[in-house]
Every structure is written in structure tokens, then in C-alpha cells.
Write a structure and sequence with these properties.
six-stranded mixed sheet, 10 strands, four-stranded antiparallel sheet, 277 residues, 11 helices, alpha/beta
């Protein structure tokens, strides 16, 4: 679905001799239907990487392919942006209409989709994110989590094959975060969409098929959540946390208690503690 080859990117600098690459020789491949979480501290390049996945940014060096299409070729822009949709941090910046269903219809209208097909897409998208009952409500009266689900429905109405979520839960409370993550999991499982999730929350990354850890514009790790989060010392050195239960098992193991260190969920942790008891 998405492939980068020796991707480099530098923001414009007034000093030509002081070019700093935000992305430096990034090579990765994301398969159709895969759920990939991207982690890293602020400034590591993960949001810049996300914006390359649908051509919002173009490489300073190397190449990005979306379904085999080179993002640098202008004639591919239309098809790339129909293939990869994006959901950003602040839902208020993505909502453009005064009625929920009109907002979801905005993108397909601009794509020139016929009216009966727009109606079908809007209804299907709102049902997929559990917002159909609120389709005639005003977006500004919704909670943060509900607004973000409307934003997701708006992207879904374009029927992309991949959705990139750039820290979609950063501005939400725990309940809103849970709503959005459950929606993302549902889309992945039921719609077979490719999902790329940029996040600061380790509990969200646990749900992914793969976790990519970035630092200083480079990919430092690319592996399963179990393998990534069992490297507690490495994650701490990267300025990142691990799930609380993983940290608990790590501390117990350091204290000499024989316990698995690749535990990711509360139920897994409970099972391991029961074995010790």
C-alpha cells in the first residue's frame, strides 16, 4: 500500500549550508490491511512522515509510492489522495459544515460523486463510526470524541483504501480516546482498511499489528508490539514510555521475580501474576 525508499525531507532553511533533514534515509513498507503504529518523541519526524503518505509533502530525496504511484508525479495527486485519507489532531479544524451529515458529504461532493451515491456513502460512514443517530445534529454541540468520529466518517465517505491518523486522540479525554481507538479497530477489522496511527499513547500502539519507533528522522525499530515494548530500557532511552503493566513486569523481573516481560495487557499481567501465586 505504502512504500518509502531512502526517503529524506528537509524544511526550507534561510541558511543554505545549515540544512537539517527531518527525515533521513527512511525505508519502510506497509502492506494492504495492516495496522501500523508510529511512535517517537516530539520532533522525531513522525508527523512529517505521515504527510508524505498522501502527498501533502514531497520528498527532498528518495521516493514514496502509494499503491505503486510515485507521489512526486503531479498527475498522481488526484488518485493518491483518493487512496489515502488523513485525520488530524484537532477535529474542529476538519469540520466545515453546520450539520453532521452535510460535513460528511463535503468530500464526496467535491470529488463529483453523484447525489444518490453520496447519500449511500454518508449513511454507511456514519453507521460505521456509530454516529448515524446524530446525523442531523450540529457538530459544535458534540463531544470531542464524537467530533473526531465525524471527521473519520468524512474521510471514510471518500472510500479510501488507507487512512492515516496523525495523533487523532491528542486533544481528547480518556473516554473520547477510547471511542476513537475502538472506531479505528472496527474499521481495520470490518472494512479491511490499511491504518497508520501516529500516537503518543502506548496503550493505543499495543493494538497495532506493527510498531515503528522513530528518532531524529530515522526508524530505530520496526517490529511487533510484544517485541518492541519488551525492550523497556531502549524505549526509556528513546524518551518513550511502555504500557504500565509492561513496566510492572519489568520492575518485578529486575527484582529477581521470574515473570515474562512481553506482557502488554491487564489480563495478561493478571495471568502471569496468578502463576507466581
Amino acid at each position: 500500500m505504502i512504500k518509502t525508499e531512502h526517503l529524506r525531507y528537509a524544511y526550507q532553511s534561510s541558511k543554505e549550508d545549515n540544512i537539517k533533514f527531518v527525515l533521513d534515509d527512511v525505508n519502510l513498507s506497509i502492506r494492504p490491511g495492516e495496522f501500523v503504529a508510529v511512535l517517537g518523541h516530539n520532533g522525531c519526524g513522525k508527523s512529517t512522515l505521515a504527510k508524505h503518505f498522501n502527498g501533502l509533502l514531497l520528498p527532498s530525496g528518495g521516493t514514496v509510492y502509494v499503491s505503486g504511484m510515485d507521489t512526486k508525479l503531479e498527475e498522481n495527486d488526484w488518485d493518491i489522495r483518493k487512496t489515502v485519507g488523513m485525520v488530524f489532531q484537532n477535529p474542529d479544524n476538519q469540520i466545515v459544515a453546520t450539520v453532521v451529515e452535510e460535513d460528511v458529504a463535503f468530500a464526496p461532493e467535491n470529488l463529483g460523486v453523484p447525489s444518490p451515491e453520496i447519500r449511500r456513502r454518508v449513511d454507511a460512514a456514519l453507521k460505521a463510526v456509530n454516529m448515524y443517530d446524530l446525523r442531523r445534529h450540529a457538530p459544535h454541540l458534540l463531544s470531542g470524541g464524537q467530533k473526531q468520529r465525524v471527521a473519520i466518517a468524512g474521510v471514510m465517505a471518500m472510500e479510501p483504501k488507507c487512512i492515516v491518523f496523525d495523533e487523532p486522540t491528542a486533544m481528547l479525554d480518556p473516554k473520547g480516546r477510547q471511542e476513537v481507538i475502538e472506531t479505528i479497530i472496527k474499521l481495520k477489522e470490518e472494512k479491511k482498511l490499511t491504518i497508520v496511527l501516529i500516537t503518543h499513547y502506548m496503550e493505543e500502539a499495543v493494538r497495532a499489528d506493527r510498531v515503528i519507533v522513530m528518532d531524529k528522522g530515522k526508524i530505530m525499530r520496526d517490529d511487533s508490539p510484544k517485541n518492541i515494548f519488551s525492550e523497556v530500557k531502549f524505549m526509556k532511552n528513546m524518551g518513550l514510555d511502555v504500557p504500565q503493566v509492561t513496566e510492572l513486569c519489568y520492575a518485578l523481573a529486575k527484582a529477581g521475580i521470574p515473570i515474562r516481560q512481553d506482557v502488554l495487557t491487564v489480563s495478561e499481567c493478571a495471568d502471569e501474576l496468578m502463576k507466581l501465586l
